């Protein structure tokens, strides 16, 4: 039942990049997933002729592309990094399909960003720290490459802050399985509430509480189209994703358990009064 | 260990209106607690020369006053109701202190609103349903007094969706006590996730899912001033409020347990990386 944990030296994206994992990620945009950053981005873009934004752990890159589109009229640009070449090439295809000339891609570990100190005006990471065994080390590196006067913007799910209606038993078990596999992979189940704490640790005295703005944002899946987008992604993930293999391997669930979860999500999609709420911690760090 | 539950026939605000209960409520405004309503309110106020808004279960009335201030330039007005004359007179004093000529107050039960069908363009309730044994009956009554084309706006905590950092044991126990006393008083601990379901029940076929917009909003207490506002209100509530009496009466806690919770909140206020997140369900019902 022990499982190798990724460490600061051997970074990995434990959930993997199967289509089942990334499908729902592609629903994400700067508007629905980085709204806390946008007012700061606008403020900095107005002050900075060629603003440079680093998007760390960009994954399928839909938020990165959407940030690039936001910066295009201001002359700003985005560099999107990930540890996986495969997902970066998918992200690049997406950017091409959006006709975005101001975004580039580069493989990099968040623990060792291959950039000089203060290189970027904005450094952004979305749902990245929750997969890492040492989130404060990653934030320290993001702070290093951020220019004084710039901002580091973080958003992380608080995986325990998840509520579903109706509360079918198989859906509650699904939530338990999701949290347990994340933790078994060395991830963080309470990222949302811990963001401020990680940031102050990472700052190691160079940041005061006044340099950090904290809040929470949510995702809600309740209208039919949103239920379908979420539910179908979860069904695919249960059919083919890492959650199934890992969950069975760790003895957290069984083939039958997985089949029940699939049926429960399929039923949930068709349920008119179904709702799913997820809460994310959001932090803006103003680098002194 | 049994306790009389309020019913649809004998409404009561179980937490009571001691200063310790209402102090934190006064932090609330339309901006931080009814943001989901404001775009609809602006749209309706532009169409409607003398818009009438009913605020149900207004309590200390700071949200009501803030809605009245918002409507003042448009010629709209607010009628704020509550089941307690005492709290309404406090709400009226607050409105007077704000120089608001367009708000009036009237005692009323949410289960039997003393108004004709379709009397109001907007009907609003904030953290009211979670105290009721029959939320759908209350929503049915709010729908009745709402004019066709108007909106019913609801916002309810999902009391289980509460996360605190650092996770001191006494703070987790406090959360458990808060939820348990609410439920023991006949309240609803999962209001946020159930709002859509209650609304469709209340509509009894007259509402389709397309008439209901659903989302979630949050409160975050993390910056020093917000930590102090929340923490001091919780300490006061533990010292003198209904939670202490009820918790001890029901055997949910002890005098010593309460004292530990007080110490834990006092320490939390002084903790630089402390954070509290709370998630609220938000619904806009467009009355057909």
The secondary-structure element order of chain A is HHHEHEHEEHEHHEHHHE
CATH superfamily of chain A: Vaccinia Virus protein VP39
User: Which percent band covers the strand fraction of chain A?
Assistant: 15-25%
Tell me the Rg of chain A in angstroms: 19 Å
Of all chain pairs, the largest interface belongs to: A-B, 35 and 35 residues
- Uncertain runs of chain A are 1-11
The biggest beta sheet of chain A is recorded as: 7 strands, mixed
What is the overall silhouette of chain A?
globular
Beta-strand segment tally of chain A: 7
Question: Could you tell me the mean pLDDT of chain A?
Answer: 91
Distance between the termini of chain A: 45 Å
Looking at the overall shape, the CATH architecture of chain A is 3-Layer(aba) Sandwich
CATH class membership of chain A = Alpha Beta
CATH topology of chain A: Rossmann fold
Strand order of the largest sheet of chain A: 3-2-1-4-5-7-6
Question: Which short descriptors sum up this protein?
Answer:
homodimer, 288 residues, alpha/beta, Rossmann fold, seven-stranded mixed beta sheet, 7 strands, 42% helix, disordered N terminus
Architecture overview:
With 288 residues, chain A is of the alpha/beta class. The first copy, chain A, has one domain: Rossmann fold (3-Layer(aba) Sandwich). In chain A, 42% of the residues lie in helices and 23% in strands. A seven-stranded mixed beta sheet of chain A has the order 3-2-1-4-5-7-6, sandwiched between helices. In chain A, helix 4 (62-71) links the parallel strand 1 (52-56) and strand 2 (77-82). In chain A, helix 6 packs across helix 8, helix 7 (169-184) packs across helix 11 and helix 9 packs antiparallel against helix 11. The radius of gyration of chain A is 19 Å and the shape is globular. The N and C termini of chain A lie far apart (45 Å). Mean pLDDT of chain A is 91; it is low at 1-11. Chain A binds chain B through residues 158, 160-161, 163-167, 190, 192-197, 200, 209, 213-220, 222-224, 272-275, 277, 279, 281, and chain B through 158, 160-161, 163-167, 190, 192-197, 200, 209, 213-220, 222-224, 272-275, 277, 279, 281.
């Amino acid at each position: 039942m022990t499982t190798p944990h990724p460490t600061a030296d051997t970074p990995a994206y434990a959930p993997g990049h199967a289509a089942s994992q990334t499908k729902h990620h592609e629903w994400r945009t700067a508007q629905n997933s980085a709204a806390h950053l946008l007012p700061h981005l606008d403020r900095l873009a107005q002050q900075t002729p060629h603003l440079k934004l680093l998007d760390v752990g960009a994954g399928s890159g839909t938020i990165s592309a959407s940030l690039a589109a936001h910066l295009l009229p201001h002359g700003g640009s985005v560099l999107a990094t990930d540890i996986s070449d495969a997902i970066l090439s998918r992200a690049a295809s997406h950017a091409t399909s959006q006709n975005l000339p101001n975004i580039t891609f580069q493989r990099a570990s968040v623990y060792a960003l291959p950039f000089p100190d203060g290189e970027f005006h904005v450094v952004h990471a979305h749902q990245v720290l929750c997969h890492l065994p040492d989130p404060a080390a990653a934030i320290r590196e993001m702070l290093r490459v951020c220019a004084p006067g710039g901002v580091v913007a973080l958003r992380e799910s608080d995986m325990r802050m998840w509520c579903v209606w109706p509360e079918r038993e198989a859906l509650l078990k699904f939530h338990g399985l999701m949290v347990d596999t994340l933790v078994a992979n060395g991830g963080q189940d309470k990222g949302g509430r811990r963001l401020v704490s990680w940031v102050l640790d990472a700052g190691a005295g160079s940041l005061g509480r006044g340099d950090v703005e904290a809040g929470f944002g949510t995702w809600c899946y309740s209208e039919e189209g949103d239920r379908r987008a979420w539910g179908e992604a979860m069904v695919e993930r249960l059919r083919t994703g890492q959650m199934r293999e890992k969950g069975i391997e760790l003895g957290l669930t069984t083939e039958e358990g997985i089949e029940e979860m699939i049926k429960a999500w399929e039923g949930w999609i068709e349920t008119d009064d179904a709702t799913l709420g997820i809460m994310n911690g959001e932090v803006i760090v103003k680098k002194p």
